[in-house]
Design goal:
This protein has 350 residues and is α/β, with parallel strands linked by helices. It has two domains: 122 residues, Beta-Lactamase, CATH 3.30.450.20; 226 residues, Rossmann fold. It is 48% helix and 20% strand. The strands form two sheets. Strands 2-1-5-4-3 form a five-stranded antiparallel β-sheet. Helix 5 packs parallel to helix 7 and helix 8 runs parallel beside helix 9. The longest helix is centred in the middle third of the chain and has 40 residues. The termini are far apart.
């Protein structure tokens, strides 16, 4: 009786193991370590080979790797003997009569009846396709970063040329400059804005304790741009057009915030891509200062060679006291925008 119970238990265990193996989605083959013959397989292996179990059991495991050289098969067995397991990509696995690329993993299963190699195959194409997509995405991101960086540098130089244009620009030079500007605009349409820190701010106007915000200094204009040529040229134009204006110049977002905190200018010309703080980060901090101090918000001309980030786009939704100009912009348009905001800041409020 105990012997029969032991026999039934062994049979039950064998059945459970077979059920477990058949539940696996990957093809699994059991191979005798001493002979290299297939002793068993699961249902997925039969689907992989599109055959009956009787057609596989007793066959050499070499039928799974028909295009493999003798050296490749020897290397696989040698790695098994040395390490006890192996994982490799096989470009010559056979699947339903077709040679495919497959991921192969194998390990020893020590048994009293004899050591068995557990060999599992998996179609490598989904993994390789994902790797190709990841590689293409990395290459696209690298190209995008290069285009963005070059676009920024070229935009600044074009902007400087436009700021200096005058009688010395003949018709041919003007035409060439216009064509370069058109190319830059096409590039900008294909390039997304660089990632910037999220700027969260309250749209409610700042108010002083008495209920009215402290007005901006309508004489002051702040120009924040990392291009020295753009800063100096715009400063000269503004001083000529608005001789009573006080123009402050900074070359980064951090200094823009600090200068605003000292002078509370009525109008700011704010570049977006700047060192130390981006334009949208500086904008968020400027609004925070206004809320904290109960100051009137300044009017801002955002200047950028890219599509404005979401935080800036939200600030431009009408009715808005701000403007956005895409570089390269003509000095006439830039001057008109600044002058219009200065005039709005100087208009008496009821």
């Amino acid at each position: 009786m105990p012997e029969a119970l032991s026999t039934r238990s062994a049979a039950d265990r064998a059945g459970e193991l077979a059920g477990l193996l058949d539940g696996l989605l990957d093809p699994l083959f059991l191979i005798a370590a001493d002979t290299g013959l297939i002793t068993d397989c699961n249902a997925a292996a039969l689907r992989w080979q599109s055959c009956e179990r009787s057609a596989l059991v007793g066959q050499s495991f070499r039928i799974l790797l028909p295009a493999a050289t003798h050296e490749c098969r020897h290397d696989l067995l040698e790695q098994m003997r040395v390490y006890g397991h192996v994982f490799m990509e096989q470009p010559f696995a056979l699947r339903a009569g077709q040679v495919v690329r497959a991921d192969l993993s194998a390990s020893f299963w020590r048994r009293a009846a004899g050591d068995v190699i557990v060999l599992v195959l998996r179609d490598a194409e989904p993994r390789l396709a994902t790797q190709r997509l990841e590689t293409e995405a990395r290459l696209a991101a690298a190209r995008l970063e290069t285009i963005s960086r070059l676009s920024h540098e070229i935009n600044n130089e074009l902007q400087a040329l436009l700021m200096h244009e005058g009688p010395e620009f003949d018709e041919a030079a003007r035409d060439r400059l216009d064509r370069i500007v058109a190319v830059m605009r096409r590039m900008r349409a294909e390039v997304t804005a660089p990632a910037a820190a999220e700027a969260v701010f309250d749209e409610a106007p700042a108010t002083a304790p008495c209920g009215q915000p402290t007005p901006c200094d309508s004489r002051r204009i702040l120009v924040a741009d990392d291009s020295d040529s753009v800063r100096q040229s715009l400063s000269l134009l503004l001083r000529q057009a608005l001789p009573d204006a006080v123009v402050d110049l900074v070359d980064n977002g951090e200094d823009a915030v600090a200068c605003f905190g000292r002078t509370h200018p009525a109008v700011i010309v704010l570049d977006i891509l700047m060192p130390r703080k981006t334009g949208d980060q500086a904008f968020a901090e400027i609004l925070a200062i206004c809320r904290q101090e109960g100051w009137e918000e300044p009017r801002i001309v955002f200047c950028t060679g890219y599509t404005p980030p979401p935080s800036i786009q939200a600030a431009l939704v009408p009715p808005s006291r701000h403007l956005c100009l895409l570089k390269p912009v003509s000095p006439r348009d830039l001057l008109a925008a600044v002058a219009g905001l200065v005039a709005a800041a100087r208009t008496p409020r009821d």
